[in-house]
Design a protein that fits this description.
The chain is mostly helical. It is about 50% helix and about 0% strand. It is found in: Cell membrane.
Length: about 170
C-alpha cells in the first residue's frame, strides 16, 4: 500500500499485481507470449523426462531435485523476462484469482490484452509437445531389452547410479 500510494494497481509504474501472477512485458504480443510459455514448458518436460528415464544414464541418485531446480533457474533466467515464465497453470491462475478477490479487481483478467489464458493453456500445450518430442526423438530409439534374458533383482545393484559409484 505504501509503494503504490494506497492503490492496488495492475499496470503501470507502481503496479503491484505482478507480485502474485504473471503479466506480459509491454512489447510482447499474445502470439509471442503463447510461444514463450509453450517453449519454456516443452524444454522443462523434455529434460525432466530425460532425467527420470531409467534407460538413460541420468543423474546420480538423490540429486534429481537439485538438477531440476537448476533447470528451472536456467529456463526462468532465459525465458522469464517476457512474461514471468509460469510453466505451470497453477503458478498463475490461483494467484490471479487471489488478486481479483483481494482488491485488485477482475481487471487482472483483462490486463495485457486478455493475457490471463496464456499461462494456463500454453504450459498444457508445451507439456504435450515436450512429451511427444521426447518419446518420438529419444525414447523409441532405446534398444529393447532382450525378452529371453531374465534378470534377478539384486540388492547390490541400485536402480540409478549413486554418487559413490561415479566418484
Amino acid at each position: 500500500m505504501a509503494f503504490a500510494g494506497g492503490k492496488l494497481l495492475i499496470v503501470g509504474e507502481n503496479a503491484t499485481a505482478h507480485i502474485f501472477a504473471t503479466y506480459p512485458a509491454p512489447y510482447l504480443s499474445l502470439t509471442n507470449a503463447f510461444a514463450d510459455q509453450v517453449v519454456a514448458t516443452m524444454f522443462l518436460l523434455m529434460i525432466v523426462f530425460a532425467i527420470f528415464d531409467s534407460r538413460n544414464l541420468g543423474v546420480p541418485k538423490g540429486l534429481e531435485p537439485i538438477v531440476i531446480g537448476l533447470l528451472i533457474i536456467a529456463i526462468a533466467s532465459s525465458l522469464g523476462l517476457n512474461s514471468g515464465c509460469a510453466m505451470n497453470p497453477a503458478r498463475d491462475l490461483s494467484p490471479r484469482l487471489f488478486t481479483a478477490l483481494a482488491g485488485w479487481g477482475f481487471e487482472v483478467f483483462t490486463a495485457g490484452n486478455n493475457f490471463w489464458w496464456i499461462p494456463v493453456v500454453g504450459p498444457l500445450v508445451g507439456a504435450v509437445i515436450g512429451g511427444l518430442i521426447y518419446v518420438l526423438v529419444i525414447e523409441i530409439h532405446h534398444p529393447d531389452p532382450d525378452p529371453d534374458f531374465e534378470t534377478e533383482p539384486s540388492e547390490d545393484k541400485p536402480d540409478k547410479y549413486e554418487l559413490s559409484v561415479i566418484m
